[in-house]
Specification:
DNA-binding; globular; Arc Repressor Mutant, subunit A; mainly alpha; 63% helix; 179 residues; homodimer; 2 strands; two-stranded antiparallel sheet
Chain lengths: 179, 179
DNA sequence: GAGAAGTTGTTACGGCCGTAACAATACTCA
DNA sequence: TGAGTATTGTTACGGCCGTAACAACTTCTC
């Protein structure tokens, strides 16, 4: 494979392959007829790609080495803030299915990080609660995750970070009603 | 989604549970000592949450009803733009593992949407190519996905959409070197 | 040339997630 | 009260994804 002893205008110096593809796709779509929308593609693509890279990075760098997963950590983090909580409520605030919560709790319970407790007033219900080790694990992982998130976002200034959070919030609040 | 009779300072009107949780978590973190970072949390949370909702929505609304998946569609879309391509290159531009590509290609091949072709010059290699039905499927799904993406982003003006794409691009280009 | 080293694609395994179906329990309202 | 309905949690199944191991093949190096 030849690499790159070429005469490029030094724009694409160290542009990673996913961004090179995105730029190419955007050009192609811009030359297409109306159903295509190069701007919508670019926005959606960059959003999903960044989320994917961030998730993968946090998972492999922070959580897997500690025997956790990112979804498992996020669930524990919620329990840390909220205290013992029913699975149905965890599913609600995560916009996830109840079965996904069941699966995650099963994995965490196997690891001794979380436990299920019956609810006296309701024979169907259960609350999930952090164990002592679970709380220690979530504190530790939280510090590391925060450190890593800050690294990801250092390329933006404080105003830009706030701006981005605001834009994301706007879209989330205006989400299509028929989800 | 026209006029907004919702300019009241009233709290928690129709704020969905995930955003209510985010606001609560942000407050709690803002009151914690330094390792915690409410701003970093809010940015990362909103980013990941939006990506998750968008992925889920596109998957269940556009692709599953047509017998596709979002990852399957995204792979086919790349093949549509790039033509027959080796798995290793698809993995590269998707920042995915080779085995993930193998799995996706297996599923698509079972559905007759994609086919593998040997490469004469290299006995190890294979190229993946759209079949005729695959190309028809990707064209159709692409039009629908674009329509839906535009719906998601209509709450932003053109300048804001460009701004957001630019901010996402900045972070992606400046991604930590040690991924 | 021949052996070492690298590349490519695949498989096995485990975790995540959704849908659909189910049992157990709670609620509704004639 | 009691039948019908709704909610809660779980399981089964299939798709996605990563890591690790592997076979087949290519390329490098002597």
């Amino acid at each position: 494979m030849n690499s790159e002893p070429d005469t490029r205008p030094d724009l694409a110096m160290d542009v990673p392959p996913d961004l090179r593809y995105a730029a190419y796709a955007r050009e192609r779509l811009a030359a297409m007829s109306p159903p295509a929308d190069a701007e919508a593609f670019a926005l959606a693509y960059h959003l999903l790609q960044l989320a994917y890279l961030l998730v993968t990075d946090l998972e492999t760098r922070i959580h897997r080495p500690r025997g956790l997963t990112l979804p498992g950590f996020r669930l524990m983090f919620k329990l840390w803030l909220l205290g013992p909580t029913q699975p149905v409520r965890l599913a609600e605030i995560s916009a996830m299915s109840r079965s996904a919560v069941t699966n995650a709790v099963n994995t965490l319970e196997r690891g001794g990080l979380v436990e299920r407790r019956p609810v006296p007033e309701d024979g169907r219900a259960v609350v999930v609660a952090l164990t002592t080790e679970g709380e220690a694990a979530v504190r530790d992982a939280f510090a590391e995750q925060t450190r890593r998130e800050r690294e990801w976002f250092t390329c933006l200034g404080p105003a830009e970070r706030e701006q981005m959070t605001a834009l994301l919030s706007r879209i989330l609040r205006a989400r299509p009603a028929d989800l």
